Amino acid sequence: MNRFKETQKRTPFAIDRGKIALWQIKKVLHCHFPDLQSRMTLLADPRKGVQYSIEELVMGAMVLFLLRSISRNDFNHKAKDGNFAQSYYRMFRLRLPGMDAVNDLFEKMDTKELEELRCLLIGSLIEKRVFHRLRFFGRYFCVAIDGTGVYHWGDSPPKDILPYALKREYSSGKVVYSSQVLEATLVCNNGLVIPLISEWIANDGLEYDKQDCELKAFKRLSTRLKKCFPRLNLCILADGLYTNISMMSVCQGYDWKFITVFKDGNLPSVWQEVESLLPLSGGARKCQTQVFDSTHMITSNYQWIKDIDYQKHSIHWVECVQDSEHRKTGEKSTNRFVFLTNLVVDEKKIASIIQAGRARWCIEDHFNTQKNRGGALHHKFNRNHFKAVKNWHNIRQLGCVICEFVKYTSEMKQVMKDNPKMTWIEIWKNLNAFLTMCVEEVKEVVALFEHWSKPRRQVRLE
Q1: Using an 8 Å Cβ cutoff, are 149 and 240 in contact?
Q2: 113-137: per-residue pLDDT in tens?
Q3: In the chain, where are the structural domains located?
Q4: Which residue(s) pair with 236 in the sheet?
């Protein structure tokens, strides 16, 4: 009886969260992606004798990821529910297709179609200056670059996957195949992460001298990044793998800035110069800052060395040693961050450069979210065709863009503030339950939204 009463008390709050999430999705689509559906109708359709339009199929796939479904089968189970299908139609004014039909389309569809759609939509946001106030240093769009493993195919991948899969041989003689992807994500100073472009780390045929790798993929990705966003002031954020002459030359050629992690042992000649200058008076410039928050006193000791020559490149070494002390317990901890950059370094900018360099971690959290918090990154939405694998990944990233905007609206931030133990997985569960069980409430929310959206509106991002 007590458990029933507790459930009764919690239910209205779950419904309210579902309503708020639905409203924010509608608001983000209306304000930031008003031409999403019309652009989908322009996609080239390779099918003949179709039951569903290409707009209906692509939107259905995007909503699968928007609602955090873990597989095609999971979303098909939802689609079989008449209430969910009715709510879906009210949200988008489109029929809800089966995901098998979407998969058939993706096996035939040119991968460039969804790649270009993604770039066009993000490009329109940049033109509207949506991200301008979220830039680092008030000028640069920071783009984090990193690769991640996506699928494991075992020792016998499907026939169409085999020519592209990366092969790994162990000393025991065991052979395994996998697929990896290199991502370029826009990192904003409030933590917002927008996936821009994906470049697959994949072989092109069974015969090759050397397998594809992350650094080769970076060269291809940088070319596409410059082509899609030619006028942006970019600052590349990367880990120690990219601390090399190849990355520096790419950035110099495109007039980009960079901040890369500088690990002990990377570029020995640079480390030798740094270590020889540090003991000298005036060899390195230094400054210190102290910050107090509710629990800790944080002391940051900065030092930097400018204009180090490395193979015709002038680079700067920056370091931050951060000491943190708990104000009540006195517990202490120390962290050290070291980067190389071609940004201008001085006492006023050093803290911002370190902050931007540390923001590279956001792409790691982005991968973790897609793998473990509802993005289903490791799930194979197609097991036989590499073209379909790439199309499913592109539509996943498009759904991720919309999810990120929803998460950073002021209303959703307030929901999380009011429910400090609430997770985003629970929010999406509330939304799914609301769409399935509260058909009349969905109808009411959509009707109110259509009235609300008639005047020009804006989305406030936190």
Answers
A1: no
A2: 999 999 999 999 999 999 999 898 8
A3: 2-115+385-452, 261-347
A4: 143, 258
